[in-house]
């Protein structure tokens, strides 16, 4: 959950832009100093928060922020 929160913070803080592709699980695991399984579980959490889209065999991409209803 901490890794999911960390990645979510990067997205909501603007460090990861909509449409950008997240690095692979192995690369993220190495950068964050955690196991690949930990990264995998974090990435499974993020679509439920509407922060990423995972496309099979293509990768995980930062989702567009939801349109504000004003």
TrEMBL record:
UniProt entry tagged with the keyword Acetylation: no
SMART domains: HTH_GNTR
Every HTH gntR-type domain range: 1-65
Keywords, ordered alphabetically: DNA-binding, Transcription, Transcription regulation
SUPFAM superfamilies noted in UniProt: Winged helix' DNA-binding domain
This protein's record includes keyword 4Fe-4S: no
InterPro entries: Bact_HTH_transcr_reg, Tscrpt_reg_HTH_GntR, WH-like_DNA-bd_sf, WH_DNA-bd_sf
PANTHER family noted in UniProt: MANNOSYL-D-GLYCERATE TRANSPORT/METABOLISM SYSTEM REPRESSOR MNGR-RELATED (PTHR44846), MANNOSYL-D-GLYCERATE TRANSPORT_METABOLISM SYSTEM REPRESSOR MNGR-RELATED (PTHR44846:SF1)
UniProt-recorded name of the protein: GntR family transcriptional regulator
């Amino acid at each position: 959950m901490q890794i999911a929160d960390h990645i979510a913070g990067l997205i909501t803080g603007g460090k990861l832009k909509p449409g950008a592709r997240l690095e692979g699980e192995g690369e993220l695991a190495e950068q964050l100093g955690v196991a690949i399984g930990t990264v995998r579980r974090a990435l499974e959490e993020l679509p439920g928060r509407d922060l990423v889209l995972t496309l099979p065999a293509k990768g995980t991409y930062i989702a567009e922020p939801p349109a504000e209803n004003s």
